[in-house]
Amino acid sequence: MMHRPFGFGWSELSSIVTMLGILLVWVRTGITRTAHDSSKEEFSKLSRAIDKLEDTMIKVNMTLTRLEQDRTATNNRLEEHSRRLNRHSTRLTAIETRLNMEDKDNDKADD
Predict the structure, then answer these.
(1) Distance between CA atoms of 87 and 80, rounded to whole angstroms?
(2) Which residues lie below 8 Å from residue 6, measured CB to CB, with a gap of 6+?
(3) Which pairs count as long-range contacts for 90-99, CB under 8 Å and 24+ apart, including other chains?
(4) CA 85/CA 102 separation, integer angstroms
(5) Is-contact 5 13, C-beta < 8 A?
(6) What per-residue string of b and e applies to 5-24 under the rule 16 or more CB within 10 Å gives b?
(7) Residue 1 pLDDT level (bands cut at 50, 70, 90)
(8) DSSP string for residues in 95-111
(9) For the segment 63-82, what is each residue's pLDDT rounded down to a tens digit?
(10) d(Cα 15, Cα 76) in Å, to the nearest integer?
């Protein structure tokens, strides 16, 4: 008599291995589907987050562009004010020089 593993005949062992194989495939399929659905959901969340980030970056870029334009306009105004101040300073110096000359001339005339 031939030795039988666990006391089962070869046909019974074949049936048990087949059933275990089917059970493992079923479990693997369930796990794969769950993982796939979970991945799909996570990918969907990630996609939405990326879309929001993209919208935010567009707004940030627009704001930075406006700030750069404002800064350029402010710098232009500052340069114009500096030029005007220099012209006023030059004119004030010229006026003070004339007044000093007139005062000296008046002082000499009074002597």
Answers:
(1) 11
(2) 13
(3) none
(4) 25
(5) yes
(6) eeeeeeeeeeeeeeeeeeee
(7) very low
(8) HHHHHHHHHHHHHHHH-
(9) 999 999 999 999 999 999 99
(10) 89
Separation CA 96–CA 92 (nearest Å)? 6
Neighbours of 97 (CB within 10 A): 10
Going 31 to 37 to 43 to 45, the CA torsion angle's sign is negative
Pair 16, 8: CB distance under 8 Å:
yes
Question: Going by C-beta distance under 8 Å and a sequence separation of 6 or more, which residues neighbour residue 4?
Answer: 10
- The token pair that represents 100 in the structure block: 């000093």
Distance CA 78, CA 84 (A): 10
What distance in Å separates the CA atoms of residue 52 and residue 80, rounded to the nearest whole number? 42
Rounded (5°) CA angle 46-51-56: 125
Secondary structure element (H or E) that encloses residue 21, with its range: helix 10-110
For residue 76, the one-letter residue type is N
